[in-house]
Every structure is written in C-alpha cells, then in structure tokens.
Design brief:
Blueprint: E1 6-7, H1 17-21, H2 33-50, E2 55-59, H3 63-74, E3 78-83, H4 86-97, E4 101-106, H5 115-119, E5 128-132, E6 134-135, E7 140-141, H6 144-154, E8 158-162, H7 174-177, E9 181-185, E10 197-201, H8 203-209, H9 221-229, H10 239-255, H11 257-278, E11 292-296, H12 302-311, E12 314-315, E13 317-318, E14 327-331, H13 338-354
Parallel strand pairs: 1-12, 3-4, 3-5, 5-8, 8-9
Antiparallel strand pairs: 2-10, 6-7, 9-10, 11-14, 13-14
Helix pairs in contact: 2-10, 3-8, 10-11, 11-13
The structure holds pyridoxal-5'-phosphate.
C-alpha cells in the first residue's frame, strides 16, 4: 500500500475523498430512466457552471478522444495547427495521423501565440484551426479570444480549442470566444478521476460534420449529438464517474464559479512568487497559467527535490517534452486550497535547504 500523498500534479490531480465516495453509488444501466435523469442533470449543471449556451457532449474517453473528434468531424482535407508546446504539437500529429494536411504554425516555447503568427499562413483552404488554451508543457495561457477573432476576420475556418488544463480553473468566457469546439477532461481542474471527456461545440461544427466522410463510429459527433439530445451516451458511459461529476458540479456551484477562478489565481500567484524568487518562470509575463506553473530548474537536482517532497507527503510533476530535463511543474488546480499551496511551498523550502 502506497503512502498517501497530496497531488500538486498536472493531472490526474488531487481528488477529495467525498468525491471518490460519490462513485460508490449503486450501478444503473445506461439506457434507463435513472441514467437519463443523471445525464440531463449533469449537462444542465455544466451549462450553468461554464456559463455557456454552446451545445455539450460527453465521451467515455480521455480528452484526446475528443481532440481527435474535432479533426475527424471538422476537417475534410486541410487544417492549421498552432503550437507553442507539446500539446499543440500533439494536435498537429492527431491531424496528420487522421490523414489531414496540416499547416503547422509553431511559436517559441514559453512565449504566447500571437494572432499575427498565423495570419500569413491563413488562406481559404484552411478548414479549421487548432489551438491549446493552456499549454501544459510550458505554463503559458494563450490569448485564445484574440486568435479566434483574428481567424474569423481572415476566413471562416472553424476554431477548435484544447481547454484541457484551462476549463474550471480559468474564466475563459466561453461564449465570447466565438469558437466551434472546446475540449476538456475530468482529471484536471474539475478534480475528478480520469475517464470522461467533455466538449462544448457549435452548430457550425455539426453542420460541417455532415459534409465530412469517414468520421468513424466512436467519435462521430452527429451520432453522439443525436444520443445526447435524448440524454444518452452513444456507447457505454463511465456511470460511476458521472455520479462523481454530478456531485462535484454541486460542490462547484456551492463554492461559486467566480470564487473558484479567484482561488486558482491566488494559488497561481503564490507559486509564481515562490518560483521567481528562488529559481525562474518558464512562461513569459502576462500569459501565466493559473493552473500550472513551469519552473526553470537552474541546475536544481529535481529527482532529489521530488524524493524529499514525496517523503513529506507531497507530489509535484516533472518537466514535459523538449524541456523535461530543464524544468519541473507544479499543478495548482481543482480543489486544492491556498493553505495547501502554502504548505507545499514551505515543504519545498525545507527540502531545498537540506539538499
Ligand atoms: C493541454 C493538454 N491537452 C491534451 C492532453 C491530453 O489529455 P488526455 O490525457 O486526457 O487525453 C493533456 C494532458 O495532460 C493536456 O494537458
């Protein structure tokens, strides 16, 4: 049996015991009235907490499944993938693996993507643009609204946003973005176990899907939407996880969504202050993520720090992708509190002093 550690990781993240307990309710079948009520209630609370009128579907997969669904349903031939980190690169690969021609627009890691970066590459043949809101490998929050606005001005490409580590930790003001898809999963700022992905989507994307052949079965948005309209899932959903989601959405409503965003900002500020005084921040100022801070190691022995922290009951995350060996990451999202963050930072000081 492993020692209980509090996760200050980038996902899966810490899940409260009462949320885990909600998963132990008796099983129901997914074509029953009880299930219908469960899904209908969840979708209503998703709309309420996300403050959006976009349509919502859920998928019994991790978030990558719905990132793939965007490409399979929204692109016949040519798309543009914006990237300034590992997860931007990943979505470009997903496009290519699905046989699409991908115009790659790659910005510098650690710097935010600017609309100007992509404008010269945009032409009428680009059917969709993919962009990551919160780049989990660098700790940069990209200016999605400006990017979507610029895209709309130049052509009528669909805009797909990876909101995996942004949604529920950052107020994206979804309906102001003018986007066609926003994808996220349960194991990040929603503070639930992994296993369910959620997408806010536009009518434009559904209309486009009608023209795109070979959408596949599992991620066919038209079939998924048809079932979602009846409060059902196309394939068997993770019912236990949905109990927890239902419970967690009540907790979020109780805290207040804006209070949740403020707490994330406060936690992010604390971690950033700690990091900039001792080591350095990887992300450029003005585009900091409020869910993940990526810290320059500056020669610090991360495995020693990590080992010391684990002995004290804390877990943080390694760097990722091309900057794996030169950075490490602290996740400050979900249900973590400001006091827990202070406890982590004190523990980090103690371990670093003893190193
Ligand atoms: C920004 C971002 N996009 C996509 C993913 C992939 O999500 P999943 O593992 O749920 O498929 C992650 C996972 O860490 C992520 O941080």
């Amino acid at each position: 049996m492993s020692v209980k550690r509090t996760l200050f990781t980038v996902g899966p993240v810490e899940v409260r015991k009462e949320v885990l307990d909600a998963m132990t309710r008796p099983m129901i079948t997914h074509r029953s009235k009880d299930y219908e009520k469960l899904q209908e209630g969840i979708v209503e609370k998703l709309h309420q907490t996300l403050d959006t009128d976009m349509q919502i579907i859920m998928s019994p997969s991790s978030a990558s499944g719905l990132l793939e669904a965007c490409v399979r349903n929204g692109v016949k031939r040519r798309m543009m993938g914006l990237s300034n980190g590992s997860f931007g690169d990943r979505w470009q690969s997903i496009g290519e693996e699905n046989g699409k021609e991908v115009v790659k627009v790659n910005g510098e890691w650690g710097k935010a993507l600017r609309p100007d970066d992509m404008l010269s590459h945009l032409d009428a043949s680009v059917e969709a643009i993919t962009v990551v809101a919160n780049e989990s490998s660098t700790g940069v929050l990209n200016p999605v609204k400006d990017i979507a606005k610029a895209a709309r001005k130049e052509n009528d490409a669909l805009v797909f946003v990876d909101g995996v580590t942004a949604v529920y930790g950052t107020d994206l003001k979804i309906d102001d973005l003018g986007i066609d898809a926003l994808v996220f999963g349960t194991q990040k700022a929603l503070a639930l176990p992994p296993g369910l992905a959620i997408m806010c989507l536009s009518d434009r994307l559904l209309e486009k899907a009608k023209e795109v052949p070979y959408r596949g079965y599992y991620f066919d948005l038209l079939q998924m939407k048809k079932m979602a309209d009846k409060h059902y899932s196309l394939t068997t959903p993770p019912v236990s996880l949905m109990y927890a989601l239902d419970f967690q959405l009540d907790r979020i409503l109780e805290e207040g969504v804006q209070a949740r965003y403020r707490r994330h900002r406060e936690m992010g500020d604390l971690v950033r202050r700690w990091a900039s005084e001792r080591l350095g921040l990887f992300a450029e100022p003005g585009f900091y993520s409020d869910t993940i801070t990526v810290i320059d190691r500056k020669g610090l022995d991360f495995s020693k720090l990590n080992k010391g922290l684990k002995e004290k009951g804390y877990e943080i995350s390694n760097g990722y992708g091309a900057i794996k060996e030169t950075t490490f990451r602290i996740g400050h999202m979900g249900d973590l509190t400001v006091d827990e963050i202070k406890g982590l930072l004190e523990a980090m000081d103690e371990v670093m002093e003893a190193m």
